[in-house]
């Protein structure tokens, strides 16, 4: 089992910045990929960014160049630095961990709300 706890959400004006953190605990050594997803009520959850244990990153087109995902070496904490925020970034942001395996197991945090005012 892997447990994930997000923090760092809040209210920010358009153009501002926020940094989200996700603390992982439990069977951390099994984690292969960690990522951030977001969801607006009534919409599907969408990928924001991912980072592998090897450090490879990927981003949604809508956030590339504005958001940066990073992790500590032990995969205990993953960060999402969000710059130049837009009202369209308003959502609940969820941390995700996928373990090694075929298929791997997916774990989710409870989410943290980010609200960007215009």
Features:
single chain, 118 residues, mainly beta, seven-stranded mixed beta sheet, four-stranded antiparallel beta sheet, 11 strands, globular
Order of helices and strands: EEEEEEEEEEE
In whole angstroms, how far apart are the ends?
40 Å
Poorly predicted segments: none
Strand content: over 45%
Q: Gyration radius, to the nearest Å?
A: 14 Å
- Please describe the biggest sheet, giving its number of strands, its sense, and whether it closes into a barrel: 7 strands, mixed
Categorize the overall geometry: globular
Structural class: mainly beta
Could you report the average pLDDT, rounded to the nearest whole number?
Answer: 96
Number of helices: 0
Count of DSSP strands:
11
Helix content: under 10%
Question: Describe it for me?
Answer:
Helix content is 0%, strand content 57%. The chain is an all-beta fold. Strands 2, 4, 5, 6, 9, 10 and 11 form a seven-stranded mixed β-sheet that branches. The protein has a four-stranded antiparallel β-sheet with strand order 1-3-8-7, with no helix packed on it. The chain starts with a strand and ends with a strand.
